[in-house]
Each structure stands twice: as structure tokens, then as C-alpha cells.
Amino acid sequence: MKLPGNERIPKSSYQERLDEEAELMDSEPTADAGRNRAKNNHNIRYWSDYDRVFYHPRSLHRLPDVPDYENTEGDWMGGQETFTRYNEEHDVMEESFRLFVEECDYLQGIQVTNESSSFGGFTHAFLLAFREEFPKLPSITFSLLSSATPSSIEADDDFGLRRVLGDALGLQGLKELSTMTIPIQSPSSWSPGPWLEDLALDRHSYYHTSALFSSHIETATLPLRLKEGQEDTSKLCSILSWETDARFAHLGGIFPLSDSFDFRRDVGKNLYDFSALPQATVTDSDRDVFSRIDVSRGFSPSHTSSYQSWLETQRLQIRSFQAPAIPLPSSFPSFFTSLPTRPPSCTALSSLSTTKRTSILFSRYASQVDECIKRRRDMIQRMGLEIDDVKSLRDELWVLEDEFKGGESVLNVEMDEDEN
Predict the structure, then answer these.
(1) H-type alpha helices, 343-386
(2) Per the record, where are the segments of Basic and acidic residues compositional bias (predicted)?
């Protein structure tokens, strides 16, 4: 790829290593490479430096198995005409996804991961098109929320309030379009604690945080990809929602598990809920949980024994799966405090659960939206939103809060004179 001034962008050190691995498939990456990347985040220039993806020389995107481009040499400028024609002929929504579906022997559903601040609108448009084309297929969406935590934003913080409203609107849309949505709190809001004692995690580094929660997402959904497994997307969503018809779930987990980890002693303080607000990320109690699916990776005999003993003490019947340890690619950060280098694989426990704690999330969003209606109508109008639509959003958030909380309805919002 070349810049407009014909200055070719040099490959990053990681992309150079990736090319070397392609040529020498039997060579093993050195431990120093991962450790140096983890300790020198300032060397990372582009988002592609985080990936383990081979890019086509005429595109910023990976184009797998496209015959017209195999073994083609060239750069961005030289291939501009062809690249443009490819984009025109293969629109993401109308062509590429349809071709992908046609290649599937059995399409059990789709899994989407999006960042709500930047790609909330695109995700909504994509799922809307997906629903029109495949109305009966299930979907699971992992939605990374913005760093603006509801009920902690000052009334004059326009930027923060816009993000809160954006997140709330995104969740409202996902309720209608996605079979199951798993919101994930911004890493900047993650609460430090014992769950991080084996990780030197920089919560403000995308390199670190994306490695952590992507490992949990990959692990939690692993039963859907096992060749001999009997699970599919529809069944997983049914397990999570069988008691409440819930369309929102939580992602939690432990990564890694130390050799001495004992579930009966340590699970309460080490299993972190990435979906709950920081004030509600606590507890080993199952009283507030409706349904839960656990996936364990690389458990030792002692881990398995203590996990089974802990399961026997739980009121809730937890659906559990076991699988080999998570293989760590050469791009994975070396942020393990108890190990001198990045290990080739890692233990983990990841869980998906439907829980009453989701009511706190919707309650906080509903309260923040209500405050905007009462005191910041000018900002709502500058965002191009209708007041009546925002009122409907607030009311729906209160209904969602009530669905997860149970009991009497909380839709008795105090109305000011402007709303009468």
C-alpha cells in the first residue's frame, strides 16, 4: 500500500514476523517477540498491528479465497481501478454476506461483535438487513458499550450524555433485532480487584483489553463450533432465556486460573462480570441468576474436582462444557504476572448468564435518559432526536428493568409540567 505521495508504508515488525511465519510454517515464534510487543505499546501504529490477519496488497481488508486476486502483485495506487470495481460489485450488505451464507452447509445463526460508539448505527443497519433476509435465524450480539457510565455523567457534559443516549438507543435496537445481546462495559470502567492479580492488565490499552474479553467471547461461544457438539445458536439462546424470555445476558469469566485455584474458595472474588456496571460486579451467589452456561478450558484434575464440588453447592443447575486450553497466538500480549513469558496456551472459565443484575443496567440508563428529557432537551434536539422518541426510549428501558427485576412495575416516572 502507498500513501498519496507515493511513499510506501513500511510493514510493522509484527507484520514482518507474520510473513516470515507464512514462509516457514514449521518455525515457532520466540517468546521475546510477544513480550516486547506487550511492553512497548508505543511501537503500535495502526489497528492492523493488533491482528493476525494476512491482508491483500490492494486492499485494507482481508479477501479470502477470491480467485481474481490470488497471487496478484501490486500496490494500492496501481490497483485502484480494480479495487473500486471489486467494491462496487461486492457490497458488504448485498453481496458478500449472501455469498458467505451460500457457502454454509448449515447456517445456525450469526455472531456479531460491535463497538457501540462508532459502529452502533452500522450494526443496527446490518442486523436490520439480516432480519429482512433471514427472519427466523438467531443471532448473538456482543456490544461493547462506551466509556460513559449512566448516572455518573454531569448534566453539562454534552459529550458524555450523547454517548449514554447512543448506548441506550443501541440497546433498544438490539432488543428488537438480536436474539440475544451481551453488553460489555468499557474496559476503562472495569473495577480492579483480585480477578486481576495474575495479569498486568493496562485497562486503557486496546491491545490488552481486547485480548482479554475476546478470549472470553471465544470461549463462551466455543460449544457452537465443536465438530462433535450438539449445541447450536438457537439452543444456546433458548437455554439462557427459558425462564424469563430474556434477550440480554451477561459475560463473565476467570482468566487465567492459577494452579492453586479452588472454586469453593476463590470463585466469588475472581469471576468478573464484564456486563454489569462496576457497582454490581460482585458475588458468588446464584440467587439472582436465572440461567447460566459455563465453558472451562484446560482445567487440571484439581481444577475439575474443585469445580464439580462447587457446582454441587449451587441452587442453580449450571450447564457446563469442558474443552482444551486456549491456544495463544504470537500476537497475544505477554501480560501474565506469574509467568516469565507468554505461555503457549492458557486456562480459563467463561460464562454466559441471564441475571436480575441486568435490571440495574437498564434502571441507570432509564434514569439518565429521564434527566435528559427534564433538563437537557436542547441537547436532545441538537442530536436530531424527537422528544417523543426519547420518552418512548425511557419508558422501554423502565419496562426492561422491570422484566429483569420482577415485582411491581416501575413505570411510574415522575412527570414534569412540560410532559403533561
Answers:
(1) 358-375, 377-382
(2) 8-17
Q: Are strands 110-115 and 139-144 parallel, antiparallel or unpaired?
A: parallel
For residues 69 and 232, give the distance between their C-alpha atoms in angstroms, rounded to a whole number.
Answer: 34
How far apart, in whole angstroms, are the C-alpha atoms of residue 335 and residue 37? 10
Helix 158-177 vs helix 358-375: angle between axes, to the nearest 10 degrees?
Answer: 130
| Global pTM exceeds 0.85 | no
Measured in whole angstroms, the distance separating CA 46 from the mean position of its chain's CA atoms is: 20
Domain parsing of the chain, residue ranges: 13-91
Task: Determine the residue type at 415.
Answer: M
pLDDT tens-digit profile of 227-255?
Answer: 877 889 999 999 998 777 889 999 999 99
Q: Name, in order, each residue with C-beta under 8 angstroms of 344's C-beta and a sequence gap of 6 or more.
A: 327, 328
Count how many residues are written for the chain: 420
Contact of 373 with 419, CB cutoff 8 Å: yes
**Residue indicated by cell numbers 456496571:** 277
The sign of the CA dihedral 89, 92, 94, 96 is: positive
Helix, strand or coil for residue 253? strand
Of the candidates 252, 268, 183, 266, the residue with the CA atom closest to the CA atom of residue 216: 252
**What span, in angstroms and rounded, lies between the C-alpha atoms of 143 and 146?**
10
Are the C-beta atoms of 144 and 186 separated by less than 8 Å?
yes
The owner of cell 450469526 is: 110
Which among 389, 376, 356, 394 has a CA at the least distance from the CA of 153? Answer: 376
Closest CA to 354 of 98, 223, 200, 182: 182
Q: How many CB atoms lie within 10 A of CB 408?
A: 8
Query: Which residues does residue 197 pair with via DSSP β-bridges, in sequence order?
Result: none
Distance CA 92, CA 99 (A): 10
59-92 per-position pLDDT tens digit? 555 544 433 333 333 332 223 333 333 333 335 5
Residue 17, C-alpha cell as written in the block: 514476523
Instruction: Give the long-range contacts of residues 286-289, CB within 8 A, separation 24 or more.
Output: 286/314, 286/315, 286/316, 287/315, 288/355, 288/356, 288/357, 289/316, 289/353, 289/354, 289/355, 289/356
DSSP 272-335: EESSS-GGG---S--TTEEEEEEEEES--HHHHHHHHHHHHT-SS--EEEEEPPEEPPTTS---
Element (H, E) at 82: helix 80-89
